[in-house]
Amino acid sequence: MPHFDLTVIGDCNVDMILTGDDLTPDFGQVEKFLDDARLEIGGSAAITSLQAIRLGLKTQLISAIGDDLFGEWLLSKMEDNGIDVSQVKKTKSQKTGVTICFVKGSDRAMLTYLGAIGKLDHTTIDIDRAIESSHVHLSSYFLNKGLHSGLVGICKALRGKHITVSLDPNWDPMGKWDSGIYDVISNVDFLLANESEVNQLASNVTNFYGQESYSTPRASDIIGNANMLAKLGLCVVVKRAQLGALAAWDPQCVPEGLVLAGADSEQPVVDANWPIPSSREYIDSIGAGDSFDGGFIFGLLHGESIRKSVEIGCFCGTTSTLGPGGTSCQATLDDLRRDLNIRH
């Protein structure tokens, strides 16, 4: 029996969240005041790991941090929450990554110091430890450049052991949208991405493969773009913020044995939503997509249909927006039992 339900590979950093109506600095030694300032666990992989833990999944994180005060704080907080951090690498050559989040109403801007983010080297990953999981989730592909050359091999090794694999690429800060990602997408079971990311990946896939069977993507056709990527042989889950999420897959391409929702259409598509309860107030959407990932994976590992897993993901994503930062208000297993009638 696998030692872990879930292994998450990717980024871990601190989020410094600054809130106020006027967040534009004035140089010339002008001092302004904020409404709030918080230090939270950040990084897509770390946030997904915390969501999984809060839903009862035994989870390990494989990441890289600096050998410094922020790094020690992160390890302590994650250990306190029950995440196995024995595979989080400390590096003396780089400081722990930091993202400063400026939150104004429903909008936000971010400044990131990468530091140890992206310094995770595929040659240092203990693949035997990863294989001790039922599912492996890869996050922030474009930031983790040290993984790129070995990621296809890792995915093939995992799937060869019948371990399902998901990928959340996040945004490409360089705007290139390649770096070998299509080879990786072709070797995972699930692509979990937001609407903008799916549109960007669909726009480049035709040029990358040069296959005429792929129609020209249109930014307004999110279902068509998701279907286009699904032809690479996987299930594509599109996170659409307040619109919820949808999943698309090509039954002729999806790996045999992968549990999917029952649908008779030639190109199955399911969607779901979970609106903010009228009794609660939206705070910010930091890490909401990462909490979605944790909820969706929980559904998969408990034998739920794709549609139900998408609904659980939406519930977790929405719940995380009811508190500041990515981890202060994540859904728990008790929440799922109460609001979604989950009995696992």
CATH superfamily: Ribokinase
**Total domains:** 1
Beta-strand proportion: 15-25%
Low-confidence stretches: 261-265
In round numbers, the mean pLDDT is 90
Which assembly state applies to the chains in this document?
A: single chain
Question: Describe it for me?
Answer:
This protein has 344 residues and is α/β, with parallel strands linked by helices. It has a single domain (11-25, 36-339), classed as UDP-N-acetylmuramoyl-L-alanine:D-glutamate ligase. It has helices spanning 44-54, 69-80, 127-131, 148-160, 181-185, 195-209, 222-230, 288-301, 306-320, 333-339, and strands at residues 4-9, 13-19, 36-42, 59-66, 84-91, 98-104, 107-113, 133-139, 164-168, 190-194, 235-239, 245-249, 269-272. Strand 9 (164-168), helix 5 and strand 10 form a beta-alpha-beta unit. Helix 8 runs antiparallel to helix 9 (306-320). Residues 261-265 have low confidence and may be disordered.
